Structures are given as structure tokens and as C-alpha cells.
Amino acid sequence: MPREIQDEAAQPVGMGTLPPSLRGLLAASAILLSIASINHLFNLGFFMNIRLLEIHYLYVMLLLTLPLVYLIFPCSKTNPHGSTRWWDYFLAFLALITCAFFAYYGRSVVNKGWDFAAPTHAVIASFAFWFLLLVAARRTGGWMLFGIILMFSVYPMIADYAPGPIQGFQRPPVETAIFHAMSGESVLGIPMRSFVNLVVGFMIFGVAMQHTGAGPFFIDIAFSALGHVRGGPAKVGVLTSGLTGSMSGSVITNVLTTGSITIPAMKKVGFRPSYAAGIEAAASTGAVLMPPIMGATAFVMASFLLTDYTNIVVAAVLPSLLYFFALFAQIDAYSARNGLKGVPRAELPKFGKVLREGWYFLAVFGLLIWMLLYLKREAIAPFYATALLIGLNQLLSKSRWGRQELMNFLVATGRLFVELVAILAAVGLIVGGLAVTGMSGTISNDLLFIAGGNTFLLLLLGALTSFILGMGMTVTAAYVILAVSLAPALIAGGLDPIGVHLFILYWSMLSYITPPVALAAFAAAAIAQARPFAAAYEAMKLGTIIYIVPFFFVLDPAYTLQAGLVDSALTVLRAGIGVLLICAGLQGYLLGVGRIEPGPTGAVARILLGIAGLAFALPSTPMLAVPIPGAVGAGVAITVLGAVIVAFSRDRKAA
């Protein structure tokens, strides 16, 4: 198993491997950060005699989390948790006093313009802050993220020496340091502001769902509803991964939790180990893209687009449904082709009993969605949902929390905050490096020039870049880099802004199922006792639609429900038919016709069905200059031809 998977697998939800002192610090951090966030978002006025600015809250969030990075995340992977060295304590203390300094002098930063001209003690603190964030990025995000952030953060000091297309206004080291530390366009920019204003509540809600037993409930409800059908355990794996992955926001965590139950069940009814691992990996990867909770990146996206988070949710609905529909269709086709049955009903949990015991999870989700979509209160909705969830859990559940369960919840929440703040704050250095040199306003024109004004070429380059960055860093970090550099160029090329940002997000996720990295597939392979690259191949095959769909929704606003009702409805219909045909070609089974026999004739039929599917799902855009009625007509004709070939080859074999 790769080291990255071992590291994440070693982190149980309750973080029980940490020493008691660190667990206590994490719990205290979670409590204080939550109180500060609630006070900020609900305008409760806890600090009646002190008029706090938003900059104070940003520094307080850093004060409560950054020092713990050096105690929770070891200096090297060979250092297990609990073997904290003296320099870790020194870095934690330095982070504590540095963040406290900026929190105390927050008003001076704003009123006296310290981000342009600062006194000596503020300059020293700024350099220390910059250094601490680079160390935090390396510990939480790895060497690749560290290298990219270092390059962008020091770029202002060498911008004058850069080659023509990426040349910017050079800044001396002092100006660069104080801009990074105190400007609203660097560390305190969009990523951190998104965390303060949107992310905190949803992170608390996700951890609360995990710790109140939502994961086992969703698994049981899925088994009771789908476990008996053809290929039932695999379909259960897709459904449960979609539900629980949306809560956890972590692909690997999702694989390790749901996969430990669903993969053995798949193998029991006849799925090959590598195929079972591929299903879990593909489903867990798509789960993080599933509304209504899409991980921290979606909230950062809303801030970049200056739009409500609900607009991101609505735009992501159809692409994510198409992806999961494709997984269901492929599993059904594979099961039919190989004669795989479901689990006998007698061995499955009873739907009514499961629903009676866990109905409140659905009620809480209902409240969250109602507040998001109807009331448009995305900042405070998760706090109400969390309060309702914990209250109902304590009143109705057999697994109500005691002191230890509450502690585990606080520790897990604190660790999530620590890791996320470290990454978001460090990624802000990238935004700052481009902003202070003026590159953020010109880089899109430079990229368009490099691509020769060809939007399709720029899309291909963007997909490749997103994929490469996603291999070596968190999805949020990869997204922020490209949202600053690539997205404006694509939007300037005439593409829909929401579609462009979702395109970047989707392609940043694909490294989880694509070799040579494929961490989700490797994690699932370890559970299934399958060969890692065989599992990665199956995951890629099952996830084929996720490689295609981003090009559709970035070119056609109807795919993100940004067009009219009729256009969106027709697009849903065309896309659904197209996905079915593509899946038939991939799995060798055409619904209503039957198994596609192996051999040259069958291969031709499968290729024709794939082409027909693409014709049906073709995006409606002037850039392609292809009329949709003509594409649909071609799709119908090719489908009929493919079906005739399938039927003919079967008749010949029977004869």
C-alpha cells in the first residue's frame, strides 16, 4: 500500500493515536474556533467592548490552528505521531506569538496601511509568518505543494528577470513579505475568507454526521433497498460512497470506510477483486463532487465567482448525476453480462427497521437543503443542521454521545480545521504572488496567446495541467492555482464561468483513479486484495464518463442548468441516452438487446455504440458548429447499426 494511503488510513476518525495533551489542544481549538465563527457569522457580539474587524477573525483562526500544525503533522513520514521534537515545539511557539501579534495589531494593519509600509517589528513578523506557512504547506500538502507555493511566493522578488510572457513588476523582499502577511489579496485573501465565511459550518456538520452514525445508516439503507437486485452490493457501494463521501470530503477516507464493507460484499456475489476495488475507487472519487456538500473547494469556488454557494450546487447536480448514473449503468451491464445476482433478501437489513432507527439523518439533510436552496442561508445553514442532528441523536439514538464520543468529535473537527487552514493560508501565497506583480490581470491574455487563441487547445492544456497538479497536491490547492491563472483565460475565450471552474475541479480529481498515482484505486485494491494497477485500470474504465463530461458542461451551459428549462430538459434526456450507449460499449451489454459477443464483430459494435453515445450527448455550442438535431439523428442511425450487428453476431453464434 502506498505511503500516502497508510498515513491516511492510520488516522482514525477519533484520532485516538494522538497523545492526550494534543487531543486536548485539538478539542480546545475546535471549540474556540467554532465559537469565534458563530460569533462572526451570527453577529452575536460576544466581545461587547471590543469592535473586531474581519481581519481580526482571520488572524484568530490562524492563531487557533497554525501552531498545532507543527505538533500534529510530523517533520518527516518516519516520525510517528507522538514523537514531537524540540523544533516542532519551537515552530508552534513561534506561530503562536506571530499570529497573536497580527491579531493584536489588526486595526493598525487596516488603518495605517501596514501592508504597504510597515514598521520594523511588523516586517520581522511578516518574514516569520511567511516561513511558517511554507513549513506548514510542506507538512500538510507534501513537497510538490511546497515547491509550487515557494516558487509563486518568491516570484515577486525575481519577476523582472522572468521570461517575457511571465514577466511582472518586481518587488523587494520587505514589500513582498508584508504584502503576503497583511494584504487582503494574499494569505488573507479568497481561500481564507472562504473558510471563515462558509467552510467552518460545513466541516463541523460533516464530522458530526460521521460521528453520529450516518455512515452505517446510509450503508444499511442502501443494502436494504438495492442489495437484492442484479449486482446489488456494487450498486450499494456506489450509493453509499456517494452519500458518505459528500460528508467526509476525502476520497481516501471514503474508500477505507465504506469500502471495508462494500468490497467484501461485492466479492461474495462474484465480482472480481480488481473490479470491486475499481467500483469503490470510482464511486468515492465522484462522491466528493456530489451536492449538496462538495468539500471545501466548492466554497472557495463560490468566492472566486462572487456567487452564492447554492448556484455552485445547482450547476454541479447534472454532471454528478450523469457520473453516478454511468456507474450504475456499467455495473448493471457487467452484472447482466456475467450473470451476477444480488444478496438474498433474508441476509439484508429490513428497510422499515433501518428507516425507523435513522430517519433523523434524512430530516437533517432535508433541513440543510431547504436552508441552502430556499432560504439562501448557506453560511449559517450547517450550524442549524448540526444542532438539530446532535439534539436528535441525543434524544432518539441508541448511540448517543457520552464524554468520550464528544471528545472524539471535537478532536476530529480540530484536526480537520488545522489541516485545512494550513493549506488554504499557504495557497493564498500563490494568489498574493500573482497579485502584487500584476500578473493576475495579464496571465490570462498570455495563456490565450500561447494557445494561439484556440479555446479547445487551451481546454486540453488546462485538463492536463489540472490532472498533473492534482497528482501531487490537494484538490483545493490545485484548484486555486488554476482558478487564478487558467480560469480567466478560458472565460475570456467565451466559456461559461461556472462551467470553467467546475471543469478545473473535475480534472483535479482524476488523479485519484488514474495511474501512475491512483491513490483511491490503490487503497481499494488493498482492501480487495487485488493488484493495484488492475484496480486502477478498472476504476478508469468505470470512470470513463468523468473524463468526458467536463468537456460537455464547459462548452454547453445547459449541462450546468444555466440554460432555459426546455434546453436543460432536452440536454438531460440526450445525455442520459448517450451515457447508456457509452456504458453499453464499455461493458459489452446493450440494454434490451443483450450481451455483445467477443471478437472483431463485437468490437466494432462496441465502438459504434460509444460513437453513438457521444453523438447523443454532444454539447450544443457554436464552437463545434454541429447542429444538435443532426447529431441526434446520426446517433440514432449508428445505434441501430450497432444493435443490428450485436443481434447478427449473436444469431451466428447460436447457429
From TrEMBL:
Q: How does it sit in the membrane?
A: Multi-pass membrane protein
- InterPro entries, per database record: DctM, TRAP_DctM-Dct_fused
Q: Does the keyword Endoplasmic reticulum apply?
A: no
Q: Name one GO molecular function term.
A: transmembrane transporter activity
User: What is one cellular component GO term in this UniProt entry?
Assistant: plasma membrane
| TRAP C4-dicarboxylate transport system permease DctM subunit domain segment(s) | 130-562
Could you list this entry's UniProt keywords, alphabetically sorted: Cell inner membrane, Cell membrane, Membrane, Plasmid, Transmembrane, Transmembrane helix, Transport
- What is the recorded function of this protein according to its Swiss-Prot or TrEMBL entry? Part of the tripartite ATP-independent periplasmic (TRAP) transport system.
Name of the protein in question: C4-dicarboxylate TRAP transporter large permease protein DctM
Q: Which organism is it from?
A: Sulfitobacter pontiacus
Query: Which gene underlies this protein?
Result: dctM_12
